[in-house]
Every structure is written in structure tokens, then in C-alpha cells.
Amino acid sequence: MTAEQTGLRIQQALDALADSGADAERAGEQLVRDLMEFYGQGLARLVPALPPPALDRMLDDPVVAGLLLLHDLHPEDLPARIERALAALPERVEAAGFDPATGVLRLRRTATGCGCGEQEAQAVLACHAPEVTAVELERAPQLLQIGTRPPQPAEAR
Q1: Structural domain boundaries of the chain?
Q2: Could you tell me the pTM of the whole model?
């Protein structure tokens, strides 16, 4: 579809919406479909034209990654997209397992840090890996405190 054809179809959809009849919802949906198709065609032409280092940098951008996923143009598979998203988090975590049936991604901390939570990880993953619908952060085991001597009974203190 050319830019002119898309523009004409968008104008027709806007005219139908302006009439506000029963066809308004259908016209709105058609408008979104036409725009998606147009942008998708443009992106499909841009992606292969980018040199690999430039494309790799662009894939770090959550907006670009989201657009490419939306149009089924993202060149990376799910594990690579998850790793890319996790690398963007301020705290170092690694994927401990992903269940495609439930969409749950388990994460494990690889270093101590500020305490990245499930919500922050979910927000970052939303653009890079929308297949991940929930995040569970494995909790580190509680450390046992070992003193230099056994505690004394309360009456001996």
C-alpha cells in the first residue's frame, strides 16, 4: 500500500468516524489496521537495510523493540530478547526458567544490589519479551549469623 493509498483510506475512516453512526467502531478498527499495515511495511524495508551494529543498538531501545515485535520483524528469538531486557536492569539478574504455558519467568539475582523487584523487571520485559506475562524473583536464602561464642542465658547477663 502506498502512502497516498494509506492517506486516502485514513481520510475515509475519519469521515466515517465523523458521521458517528453504527459504523464508527468498525471505521476506527479499520483506521488502526491501515496504519499498522503502513508502518509495518515501512519497518520491514528499514530493518534489513540497517548495518548489524546499528540494528543491535536499536534493539536495546524498548520502543523500537516493541514496534519490531508488534510487526513480527524482531530478529532475535525469545531467550535472546529476555537476556537483552535483563541486561538493561540496574541489578544483575539471570533467567532461572521460563514456562511458556503460563508466561512466568523466574529470575535469580547474580549479585547484591539495590533490590530490583518483579514490577521493574516486568516493565522492562514488556517491550522486549511480551510473551513474559509474570515475573517471579527467587529470594536469596537467609544467612545464618554465627557469633564468636554461644549466647548466654538471660539470668547470667
Answers
A1: 3-49, 54-137
A2: 0.69
